Amino acid sequence: MEFNLSEEQSLLIETTKSFVKNELLQHEELLEKTDNLPKELYQEIKKKSQEVGLYACNMPTEYGGGGLNAFDLTLVEKELGFTSLALAEIAWRPQNILMACNGKLIDEYLKPATTGERKDCIAMTEPGAGSDLRGMKTNAVLSGDDWIINGTKHFISNAHISDFVVLFASTGKDEKGRNLLSCFLVDLDLPGVEVAKGYDCVSHRGYVNNIIHFNDCKIPAVNILGEKDKGFELMNTWLEATRLTVAATSVSRAERAFDIALDWSANRKQFGKVIGKFQGVSFKLADMATEIKL
Ligand SMILES: Cc1cc2nc3c(=O)[nH]c(=O)nc-3n(C[C@H](O)[C@H](O)[C@H](O)COP(=O)(O)OP(=O)(O)OC[C@H]3O[C@@H](n4cnc5c(N)ncnc54)[C@H](O)[C@@H]3O)c2cc1C
Question: Whose CA is nearest to atom 17 of ligand 1?
């Protein structure tokens, strides 16, 4: 069995690496100091990421995306993980769950999200429902030709610059009294939607999360993604891949932290020698390297 990367995959890694090195890394200091990503900088980097084909590289080629499969996308995510989350996210990979769009939702949401005309965010988490998503209170009730949505979501990444949200809400109960979930596409400029400031982060400088309130927000009945009450299945089909990308990103972050530690221990001198010569430090470095690489 061949485990080596193909020429195309190596090229993909090199392209992403050089994008990170040439277009993103130099802005990290600004974000660290100000905790703010200026709009002009965001637009400039977004345009460059579209030019090199990283923007929407996970989406279907027929709609203008890069068409990467899960493995190749993971290679890209790992390289993007080398820099700050706020910068890496400008080369946006839309929610792949949008590929479940059909009918008019394709033109209204899937295509413009892929071309970058419209931006998506995703809302599952609530103050009382994190890991336990079935415990969500946000609900949608069908009334004539509309869904009426009420509830609050929090920790929603980038909602402040998004045009619409992929929203999970309860649409009923099963025979055991557990929530049945459905997935909706909701424009964020509708009456009854309020995108509020989220929480300050201890890290991830320049990255923004929001709280979104839905108060009798009305959306067309057709704005449901997949089938009613099958939101959990939809989540499992499309969102599992993010586990891989989060893991890949974390490896890159660990590598970067290791490089910094290695560099410091090779240059910082105490008691007449570099601190990396002390076993207490070198053993730690060896353990770190082993855990990251094996
Ligand atoms: C950077 C970032 C971006 C995010 N962006 C979004 C977004 O765009 N949209 C969105 O909807 N959400 C987003 N989230 C929220 C994220 O999905 C939640 O943080 C996550 O689901 C966990 O929920 P919680 O924080 O409420 O933790 P909790 O569910 O309260 O968990 C707290 C701790 O308890 C542990 N725990 C919980 N249940 C169990 C169990 N049964 N057994 C053992 N341990 C358990 C957890 O592992 C965790 O360590 C984001 C989070 C982060 C950090």
Answer: 125
